[in-house]
Amino acid sequence: VFLTLCAFTPRAHADVSEAEDLLRSGRLSIALETLREHIDDAPEDIAAHELLIDILINIGQADMAAQTYGQRVLSDPGVADSWYLMGRAILDPRESARAYNEATRLQANHARAWMGLGSISRADGNLAGAEHAFGIALSHDTSLTEAWIGLWTVQLQRGATDTAQETIARAVENTPHSTEAWLAWSTMDRENSITILQQAIATNPSDVDLHIALARTAFTEENMAVAATIYPAATQLAPEDNALRIEGALVVDIAANKLDWT
Q1: Contact at 8 Å (CB) between 86 and 72?
Q2: pLDDT band at 6 (very low <50, low <70, confident <90, very high)
Q3: Comparing C-alpha atoms, which of 2, 138, 160, 139 is closest to residue 69?
Q4: pTM here?
Q5: N or C: which terminus of the chain has fewer CB atoms within 10 Å of its end residue's CB?
Q6: Nearby residues of 226 by Cβ (< 8 Å), 6 or more positions away
Q7: For residue 202, what are the contacts with CB-CB under 8 A and spacing of at least 6?
Q8: Is the confidence at residue 185, as pLDDT, over 50?
Q9: Do residues 52 and 33 touch, judged by C-beta distance below 8 A?
Q10: Cβ-proximal residues to 103 (8 Å cutoff; 6+ apart), any chain
């Protein structure tokens, strides 16, 4: 059951990546319609359900998310995915953990359920338990960016900086199209952040967030040669970002020696 939260515009060939792009550009109603169409066409796509749950929670429709996926459990109580999705939709951590545990009971290698248990343990301050759960999740599915970021965060929290550095490098290797992984790696290695973000854009040439990150990093580090090159591309990808456009014009003028940067 999916609510019509806004006035939707029909779209064809919907998929999760398109919905994510629409969300980044602020077009929530069209993103929700795109996602709903994709789920109708591919109800087995767990990533699409995850995104829908996250959106519903973030726009204040957590009760609807819990009701929708609670009904799915009633319809399919023997399916691990159903319990996992209900666990993600429930805000109460104890009930959420119960659902995740039921998913792992039904399917011991359910990577996403282990990922959910890792998130709950981290929120409870149980860093050892969180690292263990995220590790199990990744042993079953190395494509889960959320699990990589969770593991990396836990390792940073416990002061294991070198291990965290290795983890985020492995995250990028295993999820090269993850914006979050690349951004996390660039924050871990400040000396090489520009090079890392350039590599990220080479792999993901239409990723607006990576372009913006590189533009602002280059500007902050006073690397005007890189900044003047990347800002136009970033503003083209995010034409609605007025602040970015103003920054870009400033950088271009500085690079052309029209303004005194000192």
Answers
A1: yes
A2: very low
A3: 2
A4: 0.86
A5: C
A6: 194, 198, 214, 218
A7: none
A8: yes
A9: no
A10: 80, 81, 83, 84, 87, 110, 112, 113
Both tokens of 242, joined, read 């007025």
Residue with tokens 């929708």: 68
Residue 7 has pLDDT above 60, yes or no: no
14 has pLDDT over 60: no
- State what percent of residues in the chain have pLDDT above 90: 75
* Among 208, 217, 152, CA closest to 181: 152
Q: Which residue has the tokens 């609605």?
A: 240
Q: Are 242 and 229 a contacting pair, CB within 8 Å?
A: no
C-alpha atoms less than 13 angstroms from C-alpha of 29 in its C-beta half-sphere: 7
Distance, CA of 262 to CA of 259 (rounded, Å): 9
DSSP H helical segments within the chain, as ranges? Answer: 16-24, 28-41, 46-58, 62-75, 80-89, 93-106, 111-123, 127-140, 145-157, 161-174, 179-188, 193-203, 208-220, 224-237, 242-255
